[in-house]
Amino acid sequence: MIRDRETLDLLLQNIARFVRERLVPQEDSVAETDEIPDELVDEMKRMGLFGLSIPEEYGGLALTMEEEALAVLELCRTSPAFRSIIGTTVGIGSQGIVFDGTEEQKRRYLPGMATGEIIASFALTEPESGSDAASLRTTALRDGEHYVVNGTKRYITNAPHAGVFTLMARTNPADKSASGISAFIVDAKSPGISFGRRDKKMGQRGAHTCDVIFENCRVPAENLIGGKEGVGFKTAMKVLDKGRIHIAAVCVGVAERMLADALRYAMERKQFGQRIGDFQLVQALLADSKAEIYAARSMMIDAARRRDEGLPHTTEASCAKMFASEMCGRVADRAVQVFGGAGYMSEYGIERFYRDVRLFRIYEGTTQIQQILIARNMMRDAA
Ligand SMILES: Cc1cc2nc3c(=O)[nH]c(=O)nc-3n(C[C@H](O)[C@H](O)[C@H](O)COP(=O)(O)OP(=O)(O)OC[C@H]3O[C@@H](n4cnc5c(N)ncnc54)[C@H](O)[C@@H]3O)c2cc1C
Question: What digits encode the pLDDT tens for the residues 180-196?
Answer without folding.
Answer: 999 999 999 999 999 99
